[in-house]
Q: What sequence folds into this?
């Protein structure tokens, strides 16, 4: 089977503790909620793409334990093909401890375990799946060399239309290492403000600073298009035709966990449908906006119908720029 989107990445279990705010260094806070959710950028983005209507497969690794079984079942239930989610017989399923504050912001520590033990041979077995998809979606929660290997396989595709390679550069790594690993192998690079700031050595706080960071990353990483997401402030797109700014929709934030994954997965789904970037961006932004209005993990990632309904109902307010619109420099 040829898939619209193939994701190579991590899948693990999130242990989420919520309090009124995030603790300071060395501080212990009383919390009000503890939950266990499926997680991992690879798994989240695969579900987001599948929910957005794309035939999606995930290449990943889990442990031979209860969490691994639950993760595979959850992915299957959301329409993700798990034929290439392998089982590690030595390492447990990966885990992430997540702390969330009253403003919806969060911090986390990830222990990849089995997810980080994805083997080169497993990607070789999935070579045809990778080479014949429409969009290959990568992140950096697994070893950089595995994601780079997948990108290299996609570049060897003999398909009429080789895969579009999207790299969500999260978590941020030392930029020279990433630039060398992915040189010439990525079409679209996506980073949030923190990641863009780390990679460009620039404080990214608004559209202007995001544009500076995106331009630096585009040239240093040798990639055509760089997208810097700014949460509720929108997103900046830097590519050969210039710079775009995508205006975000104002929504009530419940939980920001998974919002970036919703954006990236939905973007991949639309690119897989053959849409140009400027047409795919509003859909992806709407997916990210809807994700923050819901608590949870996979269940917070919106279905295609919900995203389209959201886009249709978006209206101009008070004569301001229509939320979701794309503006270009004069």
A:
């Amino acid at each position: 089977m040829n898939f619209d989107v193939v994701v190579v990445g991590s899948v693990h279990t999130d242990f989420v503790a919520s309090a009124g705010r995030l603790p300071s260094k060395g501080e212990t806070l009383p919390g009000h909620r503890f939950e266990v959710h499926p997680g991992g950028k690879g798994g989240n983005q695969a579900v987001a793409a599948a929910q957005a209507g794309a035939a999606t497969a995930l290449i990943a690794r889990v442990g031979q334990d209860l969490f691994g079984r639950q993760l595979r079942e959850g992915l299957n239930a959301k329409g993700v093909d798990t034929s290439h989610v392998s089982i590690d017989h030595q390492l447990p399923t990966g885990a992430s401890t997540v702390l969330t504050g009253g403003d919806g912001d969060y911090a986390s520590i990830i222990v990849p375990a089995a997810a980080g033990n994805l083997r080169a041979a497993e990607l070789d077995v999935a070579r045809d799946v990778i080479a014949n998809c429409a969009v290959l979606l990568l992140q950096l929660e697994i070893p950089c060399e595995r994601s780079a290997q997948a990108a290299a396989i996609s570049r060897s595709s003999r398909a009429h239309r080789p895969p579009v390679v999207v790299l969500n550069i999260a978590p941020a790594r030392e930029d020279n290492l990433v630039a060398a690993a992915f040189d010439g192998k990525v079409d679209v690079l996506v980073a949030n403000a923190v990641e863009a700031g780390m990679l460009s050595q620039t404080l990214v706080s608004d559209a202007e600073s995001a544009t500076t960071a995106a331009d630096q990353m585009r040239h240093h990483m040798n990639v055509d298009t760089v997208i810097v997401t700014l949460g509720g402030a929108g997103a900046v797109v830097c590519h050969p035709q210039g710079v775009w700014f995508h205006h975000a929709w104002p929504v009530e934030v419940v939980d920001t966990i998974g919002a970036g994954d919703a954006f990236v997965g939905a973007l991949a789904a639309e690119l897989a449908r053959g849409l140009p970037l400027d047409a795919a961006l509003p859909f992806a932004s709407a997916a990210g906006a809807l994700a923050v209005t819901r608590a949870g993990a996979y269940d917070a990632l919106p279905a295609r119908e919900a995203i389209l309904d959201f886009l249709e109902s978006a209206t101009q307010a008070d004569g301001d720029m229509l939320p979701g619109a794309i503006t270009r420099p004069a």
Notes: The chain is about 35% helix and 25% strand. The CA atoms of residues 134 and 163 lie 5 Å apart. Residues 316-321 have pLDDT under 50 and may be disordered. The chain has one domain: 5-10+41-94+120-327.
